[in-house]
């Protein structure tokens, strides 16, 4: 997402390894985290969703 779409994200365990064991995401290397702020606009969120879809599907 960062290189192709200029969207900053973070992947991993996010200092919560036990939670990832419970969720069963350890084998996948954790989860993907995005952070939204007060000033994010609807179009930016839609852009993220469409960008993610293009990678996943």
From TrEMBL:
Domain Aminotransferase class V: 1-48
TM helices/strands, residue ranges: none
Protein name: Aminotransferase class-V
An example molecular function term from Gene Ontology annotations: transaminase activity
Keyword Plastid: no
UniProt xrefs under Gene3D superfamilies: Aspartate Aminotransferase, domain 1 (3.90.1150.10)
Native organism: Thermosyntropha lipolytica DSM 11003
Source organism, top-level taxon: Bacteria
Pfam families: Aminotran_5
Chain coiled-coil ranges: none
Protein keywords: Aminotransferase, Transferase
């Amino acid at each position: 997402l960062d290189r192709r779409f200029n969207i900053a994200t973070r992947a991993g365990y996010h200092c919560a390894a036990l939670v990832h064991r419970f969720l069963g995401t350890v084998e996948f290397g954790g989860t993907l985290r995005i952070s939204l702020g007060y000033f994010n606009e609807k179009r930016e969120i839609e852009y993220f969703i469409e960008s993610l879809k293009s990678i996943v599907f």
